[in-house]
Amino acid sequence: MTDPRRPTYAIGIDLGTTNCGLSAASLNTDQAQPEPVEIMQVVHPGEVRAEALLPSFMYMPARGELPPEALDLPWAPGTRVAIGRFARERGAATPARLVSSAKSWLCHAGVDRRADILPWGAPDDVPRVSPLDASARYLQHLRAAWDALHPEAPLDQQDVVLTVPASFDAVARELTVEAALQAGLPHDLRLLEEPQAALYAWLSDEGSAWRQQVEVGDVILVCDIGGGTTDFSLIAVREQSGALQLERIAVGDHILLGGDNMDLALAYAVKARLQRDGTALDDWQMRALTHGCRAGKEALLTQPEREAWPLVIPGRGSKLIGGTVRTELHRDELESTLLDGFFPRVGADARPQVPRRVGLTTFGLPYASDAGVTRHLAAFLGRAGLERGDGHAFVHPTAILFNGGVTRSPVLRQRIRDILGEWLAADGAAPPNVLEGAHPDLAVCHGAACYAHARSKGGVRIRGGTARAYYVGVERAELAVPGIPPALDALCVAPFGMEEGSEVELPATFGLYVGEAASFRFFGSSTRRQDAVGAVVDPAELDELAPIDATLEGDPGEVVPVHLHARVSEVGTLDLSAVEEGAGRRWKLSFNVRVE
């Protein structure tokens, strides 16, 4: 008899900044054949339809704004909050009631990610949710949509892999797992970095032929440009026991720069043209124009035969505006705005520009100050080149895999490849080959399903481990000097690439303060691949993470001799513990995700 609790599907979930995707592969076959799962959602008041993607937006309607049954879902009659396409469309006109970019807020260390802060800056009469709860609600919607289609195989009984950006630190990964569990996903789910997921999708599409497209020594650049973020990763092709193997060797920063920025830039370009013709737009109309420019951008970039896209901007009744404004987004306008503004031709030594700051600013997400994607790419390859120390000013990618909705455009893909080719040609290297992959919007969830299938049935695996090296601050025992705090060293407790399920112990003995309030400082680095466990580093060379402020159980003022243990869980999160010598008492140091 078949065990009803045994998974029958490998499930991949892409919890995206702009869109969520869901894919499934049957575990009854030896070869992964992932298929997208269409997601039921409200598309108009009272109308529910299944679509390939679930937009990562939540709309909080005002009392009486919609009919009582307008947001009903098959599994949730009486729903009062919209998630998905209708939320995105409605929120374009009423942004104060729209929750967006929850994923970016989830990794923002400057806020309490469990506090009800979204929609950010909304009036007091608008209900709010936390970034954690918003993420959980998107995942809960995906689970309910799956369960409605597959009542015989509920999602919480399947083999589930949830993707995260490679740049997510330990705190953001912990929160992602917490959101998943809050949504009712299985406790044994796994995390997978999005660039790796995109490459798994390509491997699945190519089958055994992938070995003819890359060879030992190749370095694959995964260029992921989505609606809200840009991420870069490098994956090397190596050889072990005569077989090709893949290993992730570098990850970039989490850059809040993507298609949303491009939509706004196009709207400003059209607004400027209208102003020259004597037509002014208010803030409300500007939001409608931005929404129209997004649709026009997607159409013109994927339909090269079109030269223009109609734009209709609702009127507001003022004498200056008149009625409805009708205009067009022209192809030359689109390409000059996007290519010159976001993908400028720069040298390999270019770096993102940091403008002189205004003394005061509104508080919010740490958006990229430089919109030049190619400058961010040059900086990433330059940092990776310094780390490799192979004599080149930057890493030379030999192949490139595009991912993310923005890269659906052949024009933008070619622009990036041309610029990379110019950089490589200056060093006498050939331009990178483009690995033609799956649909950029679905590759991540497809690849996550392939990874889940490979874990169960066997197949090609990408070696990765932790995407950062982690360090703990250790205060030096020195003579006190008035006004000078004790020096702090950063001690490596988990090296870059530490594999899931592995544990390390530092041989040195440290003193642990218990029974009184203490602060533990932690640091990370996505570029320092050479530091082994126990390496001592200057904290100024690292990124500081949220501290741990805790009172550990014990007698006040007691200093306990301990060894430090670090373990990367099977889920992919980092556990840190201090274990007493001899007696065996253990204190777990949980990452602090709150900002006091």
Question: Can you offer a commentary on this structure?
Answer:
The protein is an alpha+beta fold and 596 residues long. It has 4 domains: 183 residues, ATPase, nucleotide binding domain (Nucleotidyltransferase, domain 5), CATH 3.30.420; 122 residues, Nucleotidyltransferase, domain 5 (2-Layer Sandwich); 84 residues, Actin, Chain A, domain 4 (Alpha-Beta Complex); 120 residues, Sandwich (Substrate Binding Domain Of DNAk, Chain A, domain 1), CATH 2.60.34. It contains 12 helices and 31 strands. The strands form 8 sheets. Strands 1, 2, 3, 6, 10 and 11 form a 6-stranded mixed β-sheet that branches. A 6-stranded mixed β-sheet has the order 18-17-12-13-14-19, with helices on both faces. Strand 4 and strand 5 form a beta hairpin. Helix 7 packs across helix 9. The C terminus is likely disordered.
Helix fraction by DSSP (H/I, runs of at least 4): 25-40%
Tally of DSSP β-strands: 31
In whole angstroms, how far apart are the ends?
54 Å
What class would the helix/strand composition place it in? alpha+beta
Strand content: 25-35%
Task: Tell me the overall shape.
Answer: globular
> Looking at CATH, which topology of the largest domain would you report?
Nucleotidyltransferase, domain 5
- Given as residue ranges, the uncertain stretches (5+ residues, pLDDT < 50) are 592-596
The CATH superfamily of the largest domain turns out to be: ATPase, nucleotide binding domain
Major sheet summary line:
6 strands, mixed
CATH top level of the largest domain? Alpha Beta
Rg, nearest Å: 25 Å
CATH architecture of the largest domain: 2-Layer Sandwich
Number of helices: 12
Number of domains: 4
Mean pLDDT over all positions:
86
